[in-house]
Specification:
globular, 7-stranded mixed beta sheet, mainly beta, 4-stranded antiparallel beta sheet, single chain, about 0% helix
């Protein structure tokens, strides 16, 4: 199993920046893909960005050019969020997929962007 713990959320004004972090533990050698998802009130959870073990990245079109996903091996996952908008307000979740096809989720961290 893999355990995930997010940090770095908070309240920021529109146009500001935040950096989210996710720390992994457990059987981290089984991780093949890492990602950030978010869920706004009344909406479905959606992919924000993902990064594979070889570094290939993918972004939701709504955050492309403003957010940057990165990782330090598979121990730490980051999401640099710049030019934040009120519509970015959501609970952000770290997720990993492992070699046996399982998905593991963190507990989430709240990001609130005021206008």
């Amino acid at each position: 199993q893999v355990q995930l713990a997010e940090s770095g959320g908070g309240l920021v004004q529109a146009g500001g920046s935040l950096r989210l972090s996710c720390t992994t533990s457990g059987n981290i050698w089984t991780i093949i893909t890492m990602a950030w998802h978010r869920q706004a009130p009344g909406k479905q959870r959606e992919l924000v960005a993902s990064i594979t073990r070889n570094g290939a990245t993918n972004y939701n079109v709504s955050v492309k050019g403003r957010f940057t996903i990165s990782r330090d091996n598979v121990k730490f996952l980051y999401l640099q969020m710049d030019s934040l908008k009120p519509e970015d307000t959501a609970v952000y979740y770290c997720k990993t997929m492992t070699t046996d096809g399982r998905n593991y989720w963190g507990q989430g961290t709240q990001v609130t962007v005021s206008s």
